[in-house]
Each structure stands twice: as structure tokens, then as C-alpha cells.
Structure to design on (232 residues):
């Protein structure tokens, strides 16, 4: 059972906005930055958001991140079929003294 | 260009020790602020951080697996090795070697290897 929880699935049609949530505690998200990773089957994971709301170079501006208290969210605007993937949030946990990933969300583009 | 490649046995038996090697290029683990982590994903489960080693030899381990894990590095050969003892079928999964670096004051997993699949037989 993950310390940080995400809804198992999310979906949307092309062009829509979809949001993925990540809920933690004061030991992790409440005190530390959140990064988001995108996973395609058979491919290496890719960083899409770091430090809560920053986009690495090369990531479309359709991806947006936010954090409030012990929760964080990843929003994808103008959904595209190529966005269909698994998404994980990650944060450092001060109690566990290690990195923790969320439980993961499978995004389906209908 | 940063690349990381995992190597090791695809199949191990229960109770055996798994040894995985990460060979990387494009950066030096002797450089201030660099880290290399191991992260795994078992079938149907979430990503799970296992350990990391810093440029200055500091080691950090997942608390629940601390007694089973050892991470080490050979800076001159650009290698990081992970050993996991007493393997169990639940440890079956893909093991990733990942570069970690500081970006604007936060640590990020910015480059990942393709991962090495490990099956543990009972």
C-alpha cells in the first residue's frame, strides 16, 4: 500500500483537460517538492513536471503541475492520444528517509 | 549524451543474491551533486525506489529493504552495483538504473536506463 495515493485511472477525449491527483502527508508532499513521471510500456520513464510546477525543456506546455498542502495535481490540457500512459508522482519522505512514488494513474485517451 | 544500461541475471532463484550492474556514460559520479538510484517496478505495481549513492559515497536505502540492499560505485569505471540478498518471487520485476541530479534546488530522476527484467523462481 503506497504512502502516497493516486486515483488508479483517469480518462478523457482528445482536446479535453484531464487532471491527476496525488495525495500524501506532511512527511512527504507537505514538506518537499513533487515531480511527475510518464511511463509508456517498454520505454524508460520520462520526467514531465519537477518542483511541483516546472516543466523540463521538451515537455509540451499542455502539461501543468500544482501543489497545495499535502496534495499535488498534474493537469493535461488539450489531451492527445500520445498522452495515454501511466503517470506517477514522486516526493522525498522525511520520515522514511527515502523517495516515494504515488500508486500510479493509468490515463486513457478515449 | 547521458546513457545508463543495466545488466545482470534475468533469472535468479529464491534465497539467492541478485547483483545488478549499472554502466553509465555522459556524466561522472565523482562530480559534486551527482547521484545514481535504483528503482524497480513489479508486475501490476507502482514504481518503487530502492537505493541511491551520492558523489561523496553517501548511501540511502528504502527502509523496508535496508537489510537486504547494498549499493556501491566504481567512479573510475562509471559503474554502480546493487546487491539484493534473499531474493523472493515478489521481487520479480524491472529494475531501473537512474541518474539523479539537482535541478533548481530539487532532486530529479532525469535519465533512466531501459531497465533489466529479473524473474525470481521459487
Amino acid at each position: 500500500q503506497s504512502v502516497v495515493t493516486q486515483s488508479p485511472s483517469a480518462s478523457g477525449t482528445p482536446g479535453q483537460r484531464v487532471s491527476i491527483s496525488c495525495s500524501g502527508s506532511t512527511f512527504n508532499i507537505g514538506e518537499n517538492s513533487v515531480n511527475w513521471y510518464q511511463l509508456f510500456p517498454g520505454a524508460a520513464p520520462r520526467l514531465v513536471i519537477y518542483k511541483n510546477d516546472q516543466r523540463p525543456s521538451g515537455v509540451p506546455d499542455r502539461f501543468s503541475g500544482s501543489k497545495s498542502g499535502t496534495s499535488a495535481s498534474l493537469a493535461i490540457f488539450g489531451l492527445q492520444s500520445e498522452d495515454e500512459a501511466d503517470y506517477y508522482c514522486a516526493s522525498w519522505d522525511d520520515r522514511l528517509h527515502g523517495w516515494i512514488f504515488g500508486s500510479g494513474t493509468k490515463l486513457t485517451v478515449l | 549524451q547521458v546513457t545508463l544500461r543495466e545488466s545482470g541475471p534475468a533469472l535468479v532463484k529464491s534465497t539467492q543474491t541478485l547483483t545488478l550492474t549499472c554502466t553509465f556514460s555522459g556524466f561522472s559520479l565523482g562530480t559534486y551533486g551527482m547521484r545514481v538510484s535504483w528503482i524497480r517496478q513489479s508486475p501490476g505495481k507502482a514504481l518503487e525506489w530502492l537505493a541511491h549513492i551520492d558523489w561523496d559515497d553517501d548511501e540511502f536505502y528504502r527502509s523496508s529493504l535496508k537489510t537486504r540492499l547494498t549499493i556501491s560505485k566504481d567512479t573510475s569505471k562509471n559503474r554502480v552495483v546493487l546487491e539484493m540478498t534473499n531474493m523472493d518471487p515478489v521481487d520479480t520485476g524491472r529494475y531501473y538504473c537512474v541518474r539523479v541530479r539537482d535541478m533548481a534546488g530539487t532532486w530529479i530522476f532525469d535519465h533512466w536506463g531501459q531497465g533489466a527484467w529479473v524473474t525470481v523462481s521459487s
